[in-house]
Structure formats: C-alpha cells, structure tokens
Design brief:
By secondary structure, the protein is α/β, with parallel strands linked by helices. It has eleven helices and eleven strands. The chain folds into three domains: 44 residues, no CATH class; 169 residues, 3-Layer(aba) Sandwich (Rossmann fold); 70 residues, Hypothetical Protein Ta0175, Chain: A, domain 2 (Alpha-Beta Complex).
C-alpha cells in the first residue's frame, strides 16, 4: 500500500479507482480513496478554503521548521525571522513540524507572535492541519491509523519503571503515545529495551526518544518526514521547494528525505551523522539565527 501511494504521488495525479469483484482490489481501492479523500463518484472530498488553495499554489518555497529549540531560544533572531517571513510572504510559505499537540503548538506560536503557519504538522507527524482555519487532513489521519492500537502500546510500555503513567500525554482518540521521562541512566539501553518489548508482540511502530525526556511511539506510517511527503503530494509541490529545519531526534526523518534541510548548531548528537550530505546545511549558529543562515545558504532570501 505504501509503495502504491508513493507511486501515485510521484505521478502527481489522483488515481482513477475501479471497484471490481476482487476483494483485495476493493480493499486497496478503499484505502487509496480514503488516503486521497476521493468520494464514491471519483470526486475529491478534500475541499479546503479557496484562499488556502490560492496561497499554496502561489508559494515558491515552503519552510517547514521544528518549533522548540529550532525557532525558539534567541528572541532577537526570532524577531528577524518574523520580519523575513513578512517581507517574503508572497513567495515564502511557513510551516511548523513539531512534537507538540495542536493546542500547545498554537499557544507557542501566540507566545512568540509568529504569523499563522500555512501548515502545521503536530504530534511528531500524527496530525496535519492547513491554514488559519486549521483544516485537518483527514486522509492522513485515516492512513496512519491502519493496524494501530495505542492502548496496547501503553499497556506494554508502562511495565517499565522509567515510565510513569501520570506523565502520559496521549489523549483519547489520538494516534501518538507520548510520555515525559524524568530520568534514564542509559538512554541507548532504555530505547533498545523498549523496542525489544514492542517487537516481541509483533507491533509495527515508530519510536523516538528526544531531548533525554520525550518518548513518542507513533504508528509505523507516521513521522515528520512521512507527513511532509504527504503535504508535498497533497498540494502538488515540487520537493525542491521545501526547506526543512530542526535540531533533535524527532526531526531526523525530515533529513532522511532528499530535501533541503537546515540543522541548527544546537542540534542533538544523533543528527551529527548527517554531516557531509549535500542537501543539508549545518548552520554555525543556533536557534532561529541558524534557520535564517540556512535560508540565505539555499538562496531562498
């Protein structure tokens, strides 16, 4: 299924779905229809506001940045970046890809007075919203939930002493399982043991432990990188238009794509292995200053 959808994205067109007598074919058609939000008569059910469509069709570049410790951390640089986004607004799109839930993301944007993003990828890729109206991409939400049982993951993880049920941040109906971890003596061993536990029960998942405190277990189809792939396909963008920016392990999937990427100087060690890759710029400066330098490096501004 994943390869079929990837092929359709590469073709940059909606598929013509044919429902036959074959149960397997009917299943595939239903899943593809749900992903692309195609109705029974072959018409698209994805109907964002007209001004949002015009906006996404008009931009020449789309900056997709992590929020905490990538955009935040340097107030003067934040003010400069906001001015850049304002000056270059007609051609430069602005998107957030964060580990925060959507309401916390909005609180953070309000706190620093950032302009409304054109796209928000929240919960490490578990949700996608578009425009000021926060138009949710329901096709993506359906796609990542396939064969996913978050309650089973929670039950298995809470057998570990390091995981306190009181620090579970997963809400009812949410795909991501998220914990705050107070202390881990050996992070590498901790992650290895978590994966062994989940693997023993034959679960498909995507596990991220970042900033020494934040544990996220996502459906295997979900990540920031996979969500960006979906956004590119949804809006028929050229991958060369995309510039990603991040600092931590939950940004890693953004940098595995062959997309332009900015790694700020305050990055976690896990991202150091990406040095030397032509599509990535390791900024000598941290936080929003590093993002600004990256935009200059890629000649976006």
């Amino acid at each position: 299924m994943e390869r079929l959808i990837e092929f359709l994205h590469i073709q940059r067109r909606l598929p013509n779905l044919i429902y036959g007598d074959c149960p397997e074919g009917e299943y595939v058609a239903r899943e593809v229809a749900a992903y692309f939000q195609i109705g029974e008569e072959g018409k698209s059910l994805f109907s964002p506001p007209k001004d949002l469509i015009e906006r996404m069709n008009s931009i020449e570049h789309l900056l997709i940045s992590d929020f905490d410790n990538t955009l935040t951390g340097d107030h003067r640089a934040i003010e400069e970046l906001k001015e850049i986004l304002d000056i270059h607004y007609p051609k430069l799109g602005f998107a957030i890809a964060t580990g925060r839930q959507i309401d916390s993301t909005l609180d953070g944007l309000y706190q620093y007075d950032f302009p409304p993003p054109d796209t928000i990828i929240s919960a490490v890729g578990a949700q996608i919203f578009y425009g000021e109206e926060l138009y949710e991409d329901e096709g993506w939400a359906h796609y990542i939930k396939k064969n996913w049982n978050p309650q089973r993951v929670i039950t298995l993880l809470e057998e570990f002493d390091e995981i306190d049920p009181q620090w579970l941040f997963t809400r009812e109906g949410e795909s991501r399982v998220s914990y705050y971890i107070d202390f881990v003596e050996d992070e590498e061993l901790f992650v290895e043991q978590l994966k062994e536990r989940l693997d023993a029960h034959q679960l498909s998942y995507h596990l991220i432990f970042s900033h020494s405190h934040y544990l996220d277990v996502l459906p295997y189809r979900a990540s920031k990188g996979a969500a960006i792939d979906h956004v590119i396909g949804r809006w028929n963008l050229n991958p060369h238009q995309i510039i990603t920016a991040g600092d931590s392990a939950n940004d890693l999937e953004m940098f595995t794509r062959n997309l332009k990427g900015i790694v700020v100087a305050n990055h976690e060690e896990v991202l150091a292995s990406f040095r030397g890759q032509d599509h990535l710029f390791f900024s000598p400066s941290p936080f929003a200053r590093g993002v600004i330098e990256g935009l200059h490096h890629f000649k976006v501004i």
